[in-house]
Amino acid sequence: MSSNAPRSAYSPGDAMSHVVAAQQGKGLTTLWRIIVLTWRHPWMVIITILSCFISSALQLWTPVLLGQAVDRAEGVLDGGVGAADALWSIAIILLVVSILRGLFTMSMNYFGEAVGHHTAYELRLAVYEKIQRLSFSYHDKVHTGDLITVGMLDLEGVRMFFATGLLRIVLLSTLIGVGAYMLISTDWILGLLALSFAPFVGVNSSLTQLKLRATWLTLQERLQDLSRVMEENLGGIRVVRAFAGARHEMKKYNEASDRALVLTHKRVDIRVNSTSIMNISFFVSMALVLWYGGERVISGEMTVGTLAAFLTFMTILQMPVRQLGLLVNSVARASTCGNRLFAFLDLEIEIKDEPGAKPLKLSQGTLKFENVDFAYPSAPFRPVLSGISFEGRKGETIGIVGKPGSGKSTIAHLIPRFYDVTGGRVTIDGQDVRALTLASLRQAVAVVQQDSFLFTTNIENNIAYGDPWAKGPRIASASEYAQLHNYIIGLPTGYETIVGERGVSLSGGQRQRLNIARSLMLRPSVMVFDDSTAAVDAGTEQRIRTAMKRFARDRVTLIISHRLSSLMHADQILFIDEGKIVERGTHEELLALGGRYRALYDLQVKPGDDQLEAAE
């Protein structure tokens, strides 16, 4: 983000909240979109549902077989002819049914998970691709942790919906519906007693899961805060160590962790209380069945096997009824997570190829700003640049200087269309950059920024990031221009040396020089150095500038710097103040003018009176 970008008026997570707000009330639409995604794998879905039906049918057949087995066992005890053979037959059938049920349950679970993971794979690619295309203005106001939450936790909630939502609807509908019909059709009074626990357990489970869902959303926010604290600490661990801030950081982390722990205890209490109540209701219902069914058995109106079948049915139906709450939770979670995920995927890309955009065609390589105005999208009524006009031709160097926040870096960001101008236009060889394809524009314009980000890989891959297929000599040439080659070949493993996370194993100046080499690899037509040698010593900077003279002959070069020694040699120097060009000319012309540039020069270069006295 540019140093003069306006400070956000809301917390980082609010940007994502505003996006989600537009999706409220679209729960059914969201669920339908998830269903459509799962049907991209029709054969796996069909196999899963068929396996579910077959597994449910076999499970419902099990109580019938057990009831018959009990009756046959009773016949064996009474010395019935053929009862033992019948009992063996039922036992074999029951074994076969159990094996088949296990196989079809395994098939259901396997393909159900497979559908979810294939869907998640496609969504991960879509989320990652979206992140690559989002404009700078979006990343200016959204915290990295929020994007990670969408790409991981929310995506996981959507992934699980097929297995824990859609598939569970089929499973529970079959087990509860058919099971209830079989019980009531056998003995409607005993059937109602056996099912008496179901409404109570189902309602209690649903309410409990809704409570857990609400607390889970809060817990997710608190865990997100926890991850932000950790992410910030890891990013600034050297500052923490330098200022002995470990105690303060531990206090922050402990407070965030404690808030999450308190809510976790609350969720455990809710779950335990609900489970206890459901168990009591189930055992009360079972006691009623035993009491009433026992009376029927004693009176000879029912066999012991039938009563055993009822009790087995109750045991089988207990779990599906309990899962009604999990079903409600799955639907609620998928709806909430899906809202956030699809709201992100549906975001309009602010900076993109316009309809009919054409590749950049270079001839003279002339860069031109024509009365350019700009304000950041988050503060449209607060202009950052006003009436900026200048022209740079091939082989020319333009220097830009000014106090922090004056708009220097914003000028650099407008050339490759990191942002779009709000007035005027930026052209290259007369072609408005907004009418060009982003790929061709950013291939032709390289911005070397002060903050050098390096990937956790070797030096060669970092330099060749813009062109991974570049040959070794070309990589070495770019390093020589950046005055880094001699240092690299002096390392034990040379260009194969692995830089640490974010390049922590290199000094600030080395990281900046590597960043310069990476940009030179693209051989751009416009080179922009945005305070890119601030961490480089004066001697090395002079050698870089000397080496760059030959490289700069065929391109426009912009140098943005607070250090006048970095841009004194420029063909034209622009002094920016409050978004306007207040002085322009060569170094000698600006000194002769005796204005702000001269004052800055005297401050940086001309010795002060106290220094003269010390010298005398």
Write a compact overview of the structure shown.
This protein is an alpha/beta fold and 616 residues long. It has 22 helices and 10 strands. Helix 4 packs antiparallel against helix 7.
Residues in helices, as a percent range: 55-70%
Q: Which blocks of ≥5 consecutive residues have pLDDT under 50? A: 1-25, 608-616
**Oligomeric state of this protein:** single chain
The CATH class of the largest domain turns out to be Mainly Alpha
CATH architecture annotation of the largest domain: Up-down Bundle
CATH superfamily of the largest domain: ABC transporter type 1, transmembrane domain
Read across the widest sheet, the strand sequence of neighbours is 6-7-8-3-9-10
Q: What portion of residues belong to β-strands?
A: 5-15%
Mean pLDDT: 81
How many domains comprise the coordinates? 2
Question: By helix and strand content, what is the structural category?
Answer: alpha/beta
How many distinct beta strands? Answer: 10
Shape assignment: elongated
Say what the CATH topology of the largest domain is. ABC transporter transmembrane region fold
Rg from C-alpha positions?
Answer: 36 Å
